[in-house]
Amino acid sequence: MKYMKRKFIAVAALAALATGNAFADEGLANITFNSEVSNATCVLDVSGHSIASIIPDVTGAALNAATGETIVSQSPDFTLSFTACPAGVTNISVTDVATTGTTSATNAALYAIPEGGSARGMAVGTQLNGTTLALGAGTNSALLIPVDGTGVATITGSNIMVHETGVPAVSGDYNTTFTLKFDWS
After folding, report:
1. Are residues 9 and 95 both part of a single domain?
2. pLDDT tens per residue across span 35-65
3. Residue 169's CATH number
4. Whole-structure pTM over 0.90, yes or no?
5. What pLDDT does 68 receive?
6. What is the count of structural domains for the chain?
7. CA-CA distance, 91 to 167, in Å (whole number)?
8. Alpha-carbon distance 175 to 93, whole Å?
9. Are 52 and 139 found together in one domain?
10. How far is CA 141 from CA 88, 161, 182, in A?
C-alpha cells in the first residue's frame, strides 16, 4: 500500500551544533524537509490484514508420491477486499511477496520451505485468483486484479503444498508466513 512518506534531514542543524560557538552569534540553524504526498489510496478491508490459512493434513505417502509441482493439498479459499479506490484506479497489483521460510529446491521462484515445525518434505506457496505468486519484489507485475466501477477489488486466494524435490516426507507440524504488498494504478 502507498503511504505518505516523510524524510527529515537535519544535517545542517547537526553541523551547526557540532561547530560549537561558530554560529553562536547568529543563532540560526537550517533544517531541510523532504516529503512526498501521494494520491488517495484504496483501503484493504481490515479482516484481510491477517489471515490464518490452514492447509489440510496430508499423509507422508501422498506427499512422497507427488511429482513436480503437483499440488498435494490446498487451503480453503480466503478473500481480500479493497474498497474506496479513487476514480481512475483500474487495477490492484502485488508488488512484493516475502516469506519467513527458506527457498525451495522444487521451484525457488514460487515455493518456500516452512520456517518452523518438525515436518519435512514439503514446500508451500500462495495463490491469488488461481495464479501462484512468485517470491520477491516486482515478480508478479502481470497479475492485475481489476477494480470495478464502484472502487472495489476482490481477490480470492489460497495456500498450497507441493512435494519438496529430493526430500522424503517426515510427519509433524509446520508454519510459515507470507507477506504481500499491493499497489494500484
Report:
1. no
2. 445 556 888 886 767 888 889 999 999 999 9
3. 2.60.40.1090
4. no
5. 87
6. 2
7. 39
8. 26
9. yes
10. 19, 23, 11
Number of Cβ within a 10 Å radius of residue 151: 16
Cell of 120: 519435512
Whether residue 54 is found in the same domain as residue 10: no
Based on the domain organization, do 109 and 68 belong to the same domain?
Answer: yes
- Could you tell me if 97 and 159 lie in one domain? yes
**Are 155 and 127 contacting, i.e. CB atoms less than 8 angstroms apart?**
no
Q: What is the pLDDT of residues 82-105, one digit of tens each?
A: 999 998 899 999 999 999 999 899
Domain extent, residue 23, equals: 5-36
Q: Are 165 and 137 in contact, with CB atoms under 8 Å apart?
A: no
Name 5's Cβ contacts closer than 8 Å, sequence gap at least 6: 35, 36, 38
What's the confidence (pLDDT) of residue 151?
94
Q: Looking at the structure, tell me whether residues 24 and 51 fall in a common domain.
A: no
